[in-house]
Amino acid sequence: MNAVPSRLPLRFGRACSKAAMVLVTLLLVGVSPAVQAQALSLINGESTQKVALGDLRDRADTAFTVFDPFQGRDVDMRGISFRDFLIEHFGEVPPTLHFTAWDDYEVSLGGWDDPSWYLVTIEDGEPLSLRSRGPIRLVEREYSGRDIENLRDFNDWIWMIRSIEAQW
Amino acid sequence: MTSPDPNKQQGLSVRWGVHRLFNWLSLSLMSFVGLMVLIVYEARWVYPEIQAYFSQTGSLTGQQLATRARGYVQRAQEELLVAASPLEINSARHSLELAYGLFDVDVYRQKYACTEPSLALMDELAELLDTQQVDPFDAAHALFIPVQCLTRIEMNQLDQRGVVINDFSSSTRRHHQILTYSSVLIFALGLLFWIMHQRQLKRTERANSEKIAWMARAMCDPLTGIGNRSALYQDVAAYTGCSMGLILVDIDFFKQYNDALGHPEGDRLLRRLARLLKSALGEQARLYRLGGDEFAALLPCPNDQMLVHHCEALQLGLEEAQCHHPAHPDNKDVTLSIGGARFVADATSFAAAYEAADKALYQVKTAGRDGWQITASA
After folding, report:
1. Which of B327, B331, B334, B366 is a plausible cystine mate for B256, CB 3.0–4.6 Å?
2. Which residue among A105, A131, A152 places its CB closest to the CB of B104?
3. Is A33's Cβ below 8 Å from some Cβ in B?
4. Which residues of A touch B93 (CB under 8 A)?
5. Looking at the structure, do residues B197 and B255 belong to the same domain, yes or no?
6. Whether residue B234 sits in one domain with residue B208
7. Which residues pair with B220 in a beta bridge?
8. Given CB atoms, is A157 within the 8 Å cutoff of chain B?
9. Least confident piece of the model among A24-33, A53-62, A95-104
10. Quick check: is B50 in a domain?
């Protein structure tokens, strides 16, 4: 009996192959940096604590609208009070914080015992991503009197935060 | 018509001088304060500008966002060129996301037309890479479009920064000139006002000295150089509450002395008598010529014995001086009639003491002159 070549197994094989590729991709994506940006590291001396981004989004209990000079428009933001967050995790507001961003930007800044700073995770109803300068961004809720045309005045708005280290 | 009171005029002049003195001083101080304010203002103006343009190293916008975005686009290109696995493609996607975040800034969208298409291209490429619908090599090649756009933005931003820095430099130079000229002008004005103040100060001091000298002259007998009646009243007021002795002295037969020797000799006798009173009564005694040949002495005197002692000393001194009187009816040298009284100084008791001393003096006159007498304490 001559075997009749059938296209079905071939198509099935191709489909399986594609599915495998997608699966592999998904698995790889699971450990890729983009997905690693799902937690915030809090460093206090020797101890490092990871706070899940999902938790931060769930806890984002304050919504406000602020003019974002980088986007040039009013933006609805949702986040948590940064001062309360620091007290919760470090016991008190550290004098200086060292930030590391996902783009490897690093900076040490002080003066965070200020209720106007918010750790924002949601913008216009959408979770922040790297492309929207997230997933975590520090934003000043009140900045009256500052020139919105001068972006240098907003240097303290830290984007793409990956870790926060307390410096005592 | 009454002539203006010189005392009042002098007072007004001094007050006006003091007023002007403060005006010049105020103007001078205001000038120097103005200079300080100008310097502080200029420094305050320059400092934020320096902060804005020269202190951004290491901060968020110290390096342009476009530069950082380009760095990540180029990293994505490098990763895509060697990408052989989904993991490597995903790493490139990560770089692309970071680049997008840094690129997607309103100021770039507003000012650079290439921004929107570049971001759209990056968006599209990200989707195609996710679904593996584009060859990584082709994607890397396509990313040259955003790289070119970002380079253009960088260059333009650098040019703008250069223009701003040049403007700032020119502005700083201009402000520096303004500051220099203004400082010199204000300093010169301050100095001028200070000189005017010093000049006015000297004038006021001179006016004060003149006033004091004038007042001293007003209290002085020009012939003998001792005090006059006004000085006596003033000194009594100054000694209020003190136990004082008042001695009145009158030259006996002075008219005959003048008639015999002439008035110049009479004046000389008056001057001599003033010196004699001083030497006989001591340094503590204040001497006055009350008019004609009548003198008075005011001196601290705790009891009547001391007053007696002074009167005796005065008469003894006169005897020792042997002042010749060619027309003395009793062929004596010059003699004095002396009356004294003791009192506790104040305006009311002085009037009584003066009356008592005068009464004593006239008793001496009545008794034949050339003697002294004191009355009970006033």
Report:
1. B327
2. A131
3. yes
4. 32, 34
5. no
6. no
7. B227
8. yes
9. A24-33
10. yes
Helix axes B86-103, B65-81, angle to 10 degrees: 160
Do B78 and B207 sit in the same domain of this protein?
A: yes
pLDDT at B358: 95
Instruction: Spell out which residues of chain A touch residue B49, defining contact as CB-CB under 8 Å.
Output: none
Asked if residue B123 has pLDDT above 80, the reply is: yes
Two tokens at B295?
Answer: 């003198």
Domains of chain A: 38-167 (3.90.420.10)
Q: What is the pLDDT of residue B24?
A: 79
Residues of B with Cβ-Cβ distance to A130 under 8 angstroms: 94, 97-98, 100-101
Measured between CA atoms, how close is B107 to chain A, in angstroms?
Answer: 7
Is residue B293 scored above 80 in pLDDT?
yes
Q: How much is the average pLDDT of B77-98?
A: 91
Only one residue has tokens 């100021």, namely: B107
- The string of pLDDT tens digits covering residues B247-285 is 999 999 999 999 999 999 999 999 999 999 999 999 999
Picking from B86, B106, B107, the nearest residue to A28 by CB comes out as B86
Distance from CA of B182 to the nearest CA of A (A): 31
The reply to whether B138 and B244 lie within a common domain is no
Contacts of A133 in chain B (CB under 8 A): 101-102, 104
* CA–CA distance, B182 with B169 (Å, rounded to integer): 19
- Domain containing B174: what range? 1-218
Q: In this complex, which of A25, A102, A155 lies closest to B60 when CB atoms are compared? A: A155
Distances (CA, A) of B290 to B230, B231, B253, B278, B293: 9, 10, 17, 16, 8
Lowest-pLDDT range of A45-54, B30-39, B109-118: B30-39
pLDDT > 70: percent of chain A: 78
Domain end residue (candidates: B218, B238, B264): B218
Same domain for B86 and B174? yes
Q: Give the span between the Cα atoms of A95 and B104, in whole angstroms.
A: 32
Of B42, B22, B36, B26, nearest in space to B187 by CA: B36
Contacts of A72 in chain B (CB under 8 A): 106-107, 109-110
Task: Give this prediction's pTM.
Answer: 0.53
Query: Which of B97, B106, B132 has its CB closest to that of A71?
Result: B106
DSSP for B184-249, written as a single string:
HHHHHHHHHHHHHHHHHHHHHHHHHHHHHHHHHHHTB-TTTSSB-HHHHHHHHHHTTTSEEEEEEE
Pairwise pLDDT comparison (B20 vs B211), residue with the higher score: B211
In chain A, the largest separation of any two C-alpha atoms, in whole Å, equals: 89
Q: Are residues B7 and B142 in the same domain?
A: yes
Amino acid occupying residue B268: R
Rounded Cα gap, residues B282 and B295, in angstroms: 15
Dihedral sign computed on CA atoms, order B224, B230, B232, B238: negative
B325-352 per-position pLDDT tens digit:
998 988 889 999 999 999 999 878 899 9
SS3 at position B348: helix
Return the biggest CA–CA distance within chain B: 156
Residues B193 and B248 placed together within one structural domain of the fold: no
In this prediction, residue B46 has a pLDDT band, given cuts at 50, 70 and 90, of low
Find the residue in B nearest to A131 (Cα): B101
Which residue, of B189, B218, B247, is where some domain finishes? Answer: B218
